[in-house]
Amino acid sequence: MQTVAPAAAFRPFAGGLLALVLLAGCNARSEPPQFRLNMQDYLEMIPSHDPAEFRIARGEEPDVLEEKQRKIKGLEMISTVLFAAFGTPDDPYLLNEVQKGDDNENGLDLVAIERAAGPVRPGHDRSSRQRGLYRLHCAHCHGISGDGAGPTAVFLNPYPRDYRQGMFKFKSTSFTAKPTTADLKRIILEGIPGTAMPSFALLPNDEVDALVEYVKYLSIRGQTELNMAIVLLSDESEIELDRTAILDEYLMPVLEQWTAAEDAVIQPPERPATDTPQQLAASIEAGRKLFLSKDAQCAQCHGPTGLGDGWLTDTTAVPYDDWNKQKSPDDIDRWLLPRQELRPRNLRLGIYRGGRRPVDLYRRIHAGIQAAQMPGAGPGQGSEATLTPEQIWHLVDYVRSLPYADESQPKHTEITLHKPRN
Amino acid sequence: MSSTTLGAHEAAHGHAHHDERGGAARFLRTYIFSLDHKVIGVQFLFSTLLWFMVGGLLALAVRWQLAWPWSKMPIAGRLFPEGQISPEFYTMLFTMHASIMIFFVIIPILAGAFGNFLIPLMIGAEDMAFPTLNMLSYWFMWPAFIFMTASFFVTGGASNAGWTGYPPLSAIQGAAPGSLNGQTLWLLGLVFVGISSMMGSVNYMTTIIQMRAPGMTMFRLPMTIWAMFITAILQAFALPVLTAALFMQLLDRTVRTGFFIPEGLIVNNMEAGAGGGQPLLWQHLFWFYSHPAVYIMILPAMGMVSDMISCFARKPLFGYKPMVYSIAGIAGLGFIVWGHHMFMSGMNPWLGATFMVSTMMIALPSAIKVFNWLGTLWGGRIQFATPMLFALSFVSMFIIGGLSGIFMAATPVDIFIHDTYFIVAHIHYVLFGGTAFGVFGAIYFWFPKMFGRMMNEFWGKVHFFFSFIFFNGTFYTMHILGAGGFPRRLADPYHYETFRHLLGMNQFISLCAFGMGAAQIIFAANFIYSIFFGPKAGRNPWHANSLEWTAPSPPGHGNFEDQPIVYRGPYEYGSPEVDQDYYPQNRPPPEGQEPHEPGHH
Amino acid sequence: MRKPRPAFPKGMGKAPGAWRKSVGKFWSVLFLLVPVLGVALFWWAPGAGYWLPRDISRHGHQIDHLFYFVLVLTGVVFVATEGVLFWFLWRYDSATNRDPATYMHGSHNLEVIWTILPAAILLFIAIYQMNAWADVKMRAPPGMRPTVEVTARQFEWRLRYPGPDNRFGTLDDIHHVNDLHVPVDTDILVDLKSMDVLHDFFLPHLRIKQDAVPGMNIPVWFRATEIGTYDLVCAELCGWGHYKMKGRLTVESREAYGKWLADMYAAQQATQDPQAAEDR
């Protein structure tokens, strides 16, 4: 059974205890870090499966006892399977079928993953660092397990991404698809403006590639775990755990989603001409009308003036994104982070988390934002398009013009230099 | 001239015999809620030494991260989730290291511990002017201790905003993890330290002005007392400004008054509030206190070092009056140089040029003091006792700290070295190499008077030797880091190519720092052992002149058996009037001889 | 008049044997090590690569010159005072010094000399450096308009160039993050702002440092003289991520700069996925 560290609650005490422990001179060797079992959070999240189900009290009824023992055994098996299929944070591992090789070009690159994994080497010359990239750059926020609950996470708004759910917001692909490799790379290079995710544009290219591969590894590992957990908790018969079953039922489907992402990229059609100021103004005006219209329904969240204060935000309809729905409810649990509300973007600040290029905005409007209540206007899985590509382009033009409208920039002043007096 | 102490002396003695109640109450009255300045001084000493240890451990953790970034820390590493120091924890470490060292160690150990213990003894009084106020000044440190300790345990941890607490980082809850409740507790803690200091300062001024023994003119006061006196004045004038600023920030944080928060801030995706304030205002107010506080943190040590050097050189202090005037000069100029902390802050550069001139000038009195210490050594008979070694190292280290200050005062140079390790080196040469070494010397020097026993000389010297070597290894090297532009307060400076090659030097520095920390174990052991088992000391083990050495060791309640009467200054070593090489202040001159007045030559 | 040696407490005042005599010398030499090793370290460091980063700015030599000027001046005073301290300790060690202590309380003339002399030197430094200060912080190149607007926020440098119309605050502004491009040998005026807390715009190689204060627009000007990439450092504590608020200054030829601006502009207007940009 893997250890479950109540990270967030533990940290505040560290400062106080530091002095005590240094004094006491306790010299216990610390264990190498382990992946945190997703299940622990997951069980908390589902009301019908409270953790008490996994604690065996004295004098339990025989059938209840049996049920509990079955689940505990299941948990232990999941833990064992994950260990066998993915290794540990210090020593990652991939099954042959998942590994990139001559006969399998869709797999993950174990060499790159190993570069990103492992501890930060003390005193290592950074120009030739071979290992520990993830823990150097990412783990403070995203956590060693990629659960988005590293030590710094609790102080950030919004929280860092939890990769294990397999959902990503800012990508070039359709609503439910995985991001492409290029998408992840772009996020690492450019950061996400308006959040705590910084730009890593100054890292060498190969290090960025290694980190991208490691993020995929963590995401696939986490989603595989979830898939197994869902089966375990569904009260069905014994969970099948031979190698083929694991691969076919839980792991390969996830990997296939990632492979399929490259084909799900949205390529916007040629935009209507906006070469002259008149054309642009017309497009913006058309976009404004659409923005307020019932077809696009932008204003009900983003507000009639784009300030992110639409009427729907006054109701409780959209307060959390999917990650926050799984965080602790209003009472702060021991290791789950408190929930943060989801706010529609204020479009007049000129901060675009998914990128500011027209093509980025087009994709945002076309595909929507997964897990974040922003619906797509283009055709989705089993749904009709609500807007034509041309209409989306008008909206893009309108949204892009908002930060530069006069009323958006009352505070902008250009500097005046001190007059030299000599 | 005051000579009203005789009556009060008797009254105090009478009072001592009234308290004949049960043992517990009596114990409380004698050792815990004591009104006796000596007990209060020792209470301050013990508390501040404990905090010194805490502050030192925090510094060692900082050094670990700088030498072996993000790697698992030995011993304490188990505490951190995922085995490594997180960046916000690192920020908390250096913030709290500085806050504790400055507000809980240096200021209270000088004024609280030594000021309390020495002032009545050295001026020949039986206690402070306001004993109850004195007791309160110690017990008002306790809320501060509690707030500061508690701040480590609240969500987000202790303050994260640097010891200078610059807003908006400190004033906005979402700006830094430690800006949750940690910063509020930090502010409250500092308010109580301020209250304590203010009580002490009023008491010291009154005591020194009103309660000197007969014959103890102002220019017969030991330098320690002069320094304490001027320090008390500095405290009294500067502290109200800090207290006001602390309350303003507290209001900004709690009811969003916006004194320091400009309009339109969005921090951590949250609107910061009404705005209309100016972050630079805090810097002005803070440094208006904290620059004089730099002198509050060194002047008493200068005074004590002057006494030690004269005693162990067996020679009168060179240039007593210039020394007094230069202390006063430092205090006066100290109020008009605060802007030199703000050369890069966005303050009007014309103002910067003005502050630069006043800052250059404040180096002058410090230089005069160094020359006079050297003059005192010249032609003496120097005894290398442990207190003397620390006093000498004070001079030696203060020279470095003072000279490196000139780099910062030169505004164009400050453009480059501002907020680099050059500043860190400078402040530690003044506050550690200076004040802390002076304090170590003072502890060795006055220990026999405090506890009636000597500290072990051999281990004292071992402590000095390793402290001195490792101190210089740690902080002298930091000048080179600073010249390389190495910035302060970065959890991982090696992200920057410019600073990557400095990792090796940082590892050397950290090793020295750990050595320095280990050397303090020798001191702690010597200190505790000597309280109980040290050799008994007589009244005057060092053959010194000032009045405290004529009292028993340790002095009883009321200090002196007889009212001391002062005939001369405290530095009459090697006087031709007597056969021995010291001449206590209260010894009557031989029959038929005119008392010799120093300064008339 | 011979004075008896003071009787010291236990363990201190033993008869002055040979070992005792050398103890004072030992401590004197320890204090001599301070100036010797101190100077040696500063002598060694530049050659070993631990020194001021290479200066690539037009005004930087003034600052470096002042640094060396102060270094030499303080170095002389440092060696002199520490040397005197050592010599007095060596010479007047009570274990070997046969002379009685000199009974004197000071010297008026000396006091006057060592007051006036340092005062004159300090005043000279103060006046001597005024010009450099004015050049960096007070006398901007006349008639300039800002080249780039740098807005610091937790924990990145947001950059904005005016774009083809040469005006800020329009749809064709060029936005970028962390990677500040400037043309070589050209006066650059930066409009420095902050969105949230205090930051500090520190270019070690250009000897530029200026706090960014929310609510203030602070002008910063410089001229880079060498093509290359250099670190842009945040030098004012700005929160937990202060250490990673790293930027890069790219100094390039005017042609390359113009091309970069044009490319940036084009990339920002992209309506299709340019494959090249994705592959970097």
Description:
- The complex is a heterotrimer of chains A (422), B (601) and C (280).
- Chain A is 41% helix and 0% strand.
- By secondary structure, chain A is mainly α.
- The termini of chain A are far apart.
- In chain A, helix 4 (110-116) crosses helix 8.
- Chain A is built from 14 helices and no strands.
- Chain B is mainly alpha-helical.
- Helices cover 62% and strands 1% of the residues of chain B.
- Chain B is built from 18 helices and 2 strands.
- Chain B has helices spanning 5-16, 23-32, 37-67, 87-123, 131-139, 141-151, 181-210, 223-255, 279-296, 299-313, 320-334, 349-377, 386-409, 411-417, 421-451, 457-483, 497-500, 503-533; strands at residues 266-267, 270-271.
- Chain B has a two-stranded antiparallel ribbon.
- In chain B, a hairpin with a 2-residue loop joins strand 1 (266-267) and strand 2 (270-271).
- The two termini of chain B are 24 Å apart.
- The model of chain B is unreliable at 1-19 (pLDDT under 50).
- With 280 residues, chain C is an alpha+beta fold.
- Chain C is built from 6 helices and 10 strands.
- In chain C, strands 3-2-1-5-8 form a 5-stranded mixed beta sheet.
- In chain C, helix 1 (18-47) runs antiparallel to helix 2.
- The radius of gyration of chain C is 29 Å and the shape is elongated.
- Chains in contact: A-B, A-C, B-C.
- Chains B and C meet through helix 4, strand 1, helix 11, helix 12 and helix 13 of B and helix 1, helix 2, helix 3, helix 4 and strand 7 of C.
What's the short version?
The complex is a heterotrimer of chains A (422), B (601) and C (280). Chain A has 422 residues and is mostly helical. Chain A has 14 helices and no strands.
Structural class of chain A: mainly alpha
Distance between the termini of chain A: 75 Å
**Order of the strands making up the biggest sheet of chain C:** 3-2-1-5-8
Ranges of chain A with pLDDT <50 over ≥5 residues?
1-29, 44-49, 330-334
